[in-house]
Write a structure and sequence with these properties.
Number of strands: 2
Radius of gyration: 12 Å
Number of domains: 1
Helix content: 25-40%
Structural class: alpha+beta
Order of helices and strands: EHE
Strand content: 15-25%
Number of helices: 1
Distance between the termini: 43 Å
Largest sheet: 2 strands, parallel
Strand order of the largest sheet: 1-2
Shape: flat
Length: 47
């Protein structure tokens, strides 16, 4: 079933550990393009 998510992009928050990491890996294994955003990251323009 590899490639079933090909061409789709996912933004995962909290992907450093736990369920976020597992989700990011699962999406990538199925062909999705995964971008990770760590929890607690500064928001653009917040400073």
């Amino acid at each position: 079933m590899s490639g079933e998510l090909s061409g789709r992009t996912f933004l995962i928050t909290g992907a450093n550990t736990g369920i976020g990491l597992a989700t990011a890996r699962a999406l990538a294994m199925r062909g999705g393009r995964v971008s990770r955003l760590p929890v607690g990251a500064e928001r653009p323009g917040s400073g």
